[in-house]
Amino acid sequence: MSLAPTPERPPTPSPAIPKADAKAASAAGGGAPQPFRHIVAVTSGKGGVGKTFVAANLAAALARTGKRVLVLDADLGLANLDVVLNLYPKITLHDVFTGRHTLADAILPAPGGFSVLLAGSGMVEYSRMTGEVREKLQALVAEVAPRFDQVLFDTGAGISDVVLYTVSLAGEVLVVATPEPTSLTDAYATIKVLANTQGRRRIHLLVNQVRRQGEGRGVRNQLQQVVDRYVNPALDVPVRLELLGEVPVDTAVREAVQRRQLLLEAMPGTAAALALVNAAVKMPA
């Protein structure tokens, strides 16, 4: 699938940001602490691309190197990291935000040797990034970040104000996409918004569910071409996409997800598991 635009109609959404996201952009640009470089926001334009699966297994791969790793479930209203890891938390971010429990109480050990900070699911109060939620999240990140060598945010998908503000707290961004046309279009939209609202000039890319070797590089090149044509001309410093890796379609992935197990724990020698280990080696420190 080519992302090359035609003169009549670009294949991507208009660069205009919805009003709600414009507010989020403003929030992300001001009032946020200086991002921690060792925090990586794992995000995506489209849901269903394997973002949470990727974040959890990258964390396991990083933990194997001896790093103290935390995954923070930053999809505040629709959390599912607990499902992927087969955890049943009694204490969540909601309890920390409301003062019922301390941060130390909420950080749990996860399979794979890393730690997790889980969010509740179905919490309508976290569907919008209010000033109160913003302040609480900012304070929590500032408190938790110094305790770990690497922190991964498993964000929601898309460009809502919650996602954009959460990403703004991270020093680096990893966009997860698949070769599917809708995933590529939404990945481009996400990259464009991050470049224009947060000044992102380096964005990492991981292409999931590739069917042939080298397809991830092709996806990266297609996205870079569209960014070069429609985003970079207006910027003093161009946006560069760095390919972190490609994960092949592998029946072992579906099996691990259905078992609610980490792929690196259940089937470490499979093609997808090895690809994730290789990607972890390239993660920004």
Strand order of the largest sheet: 3-4-2-5-1-6-7-8
Write the element-wise H/E pattern from the N-terminal end onward: HEHEHHHEEHEHEHEHEHHH
Helicity range? 40-55%
Helical stretch count? 12
Q: Return residue spans where pLDDT drops below 50 for at least 5 consecutive residues.
A: 4-31
Number of strands: 8
Task: Look at the structure and give the CATH class.
Answer: Alpha Beta
Major sheet description: 8 strands, mixed
Question: In the CATH scheme, what's the topology name?
Answer: Rossmann fold
Rg (C-alpha, Å) = 18 Å
Strand content: 15-25%
Q: How many domains in all?
A: 1
Supply the CATH superfamily name. Answer: P-loop containing nucleotide triphosphate hydrolases
What is the global morphology?
globular
- End-to-end separation: 33 Å
Structural class: alpha/beta
Q: What average pLDDT do the residues reach?
A: 87
Question: Which tags fit this structure?
Answer:
8 strands, alpha/beta, Rossmann fold, 285 residues, globular, 12 helices, eight-stranded mixed beta sheet
